[in-house]
Specification:
Two copies of one chain form a homodimer.
Chain A: E1 11-16, H1 22-33, E2 36-38, H2 40-50, H3 54-62, H4 83-105, E3 108-111, H5 115-118, E4 125-130, H6 133-142, H7 152-174, E5 186-189, H8 195-203
Parallel strand pairs in A: 1-3, 1-4, 2-3, 4-5
Chain lengths: ~210, ~210
């Protein structure tokens, strides 16, 4: 559909709770709509431009905005003077440039990485994908890498820990509350959905 | 679309922030899907069955779960012995029966009144409709009854006060947090939507 203020391209950003299937939903939606899909491609592009390793960038953009800062106390702490902080800031600046370029180039789905905020001037459709914790635990088990044997408690901790990182990262760079529905146009609960089957229905929102 | 666990009828419940256009969205969705729409009809039916006035019931079901209780203190307060409390409880019991009957009879859209919770066993599609406060203020002005001249501040207070009532009522009877996305399948932000134009797109979710 058209938003009140029309946009040039059809750009869909997807925020998501860990284990909710947001990435699958984003990828399938892009396939169905036959538009570009950006997720790990963003990290690859940052790596190319900054000469940092993809693994390092993944840690920076997916987790904590200042993951490698030393523990310091009170007034003696000045992040601006810290070289690690400067790197994370320049990674974010590069990410901002890349995401804007991607959105200007063609219709696309962009997963995570504060894209909803970075692109706010062009008013993308902003999705947030979430699910009950039980559903997310089941989903994570079904997709666990071979050899990973977590208990329910450990899996729950892993899920909440990844979300905590996303939340901190998002809130640090946007000043908005991560997962607060007011920052999104549509929030989709996947607990009772088979994502593959749901896509043709969800895609109509963006006709 | 089908939920994982299929349901007998297509039942859609609509929770909504005041001024978000949730009622309009629900009514238009029912029209578009050619299914029944229940909103004030529920109050009318309760009135018929309980012999209470519609206005009184509206106050009970839309606002506070115990609006007419006297102010009492600490241990001396026993709501069960209070006749007004008993009336509000019996209104809720009647409402529960009516909503279940409606959902069993035919496909329908039901707006408000804890229907998502009351019908949880048949797993309805649960919508929550919301919008930015600014958008809600604009909407309320556009629909204000003739002769109502509220300032922005007064309109904001009115909106927040109605929502507070809905929240208290919902939380009292369901034990769930009103407007918490985990209790809904889809949350729709109407701030940037023209509801009339959005309906054919939203309706596809329930094909």
């Amino acid at each position: 559909m058209q938003a009140k203020e029309s946009i040039l391209n059809k750009v869909i950003t997807v925020g998501r709770q860990f284990g909710s299937g947001g990435r699958e939903l984003g990828r399938r939606l892009a396939d169905y709509l036959q538009i570009a899909y950006y997720d790990k491609e963003i990290v690859e592009e940052i790596a190319k431009r900054t000469q940092l390793s993809e693994e390092y960038i993944h840690n920076v953009v997916e987790h904590h905005p200042y993951p490698l800062l030393p523990i310091t106390i009170g007034r003696s702490f000045n992040p601006m003077g810290n070289p690690m902080f400067q790197i994370t800031q320049s990674v974010y600046a590069e990410q901002t440039r890349i995401i804007k370029e991607m959105a200007e180039t063609s219709d696309c789905v962009i997963v995570g990485r504060c894209a909803d905020y970075i692109l706010r001037d062009i008013k993308p459709w902003r999705l947030f994908v979430y699910a009950d914790l039980d559903a997310r635990i089941r989903r994570c088990y079904a997709r666990a890498p071979e050899g990973e044997h977590l208990t329910d408690k450990e899996m729950k901790q892993k899920i909440l820990s990844v979300d905590k990182g996303r939340q901190k990262y998002y809130e640090f760079y946007t000043g908005n509350k991560w997962g607060d529905m007011t920052n999104y146009d549509f929030c989709i609960n996947t607990s009772n959905l088979i994502i593959k089957d749901a896509i043709p229905h969800i895609a109509h929102l963006f006709d």
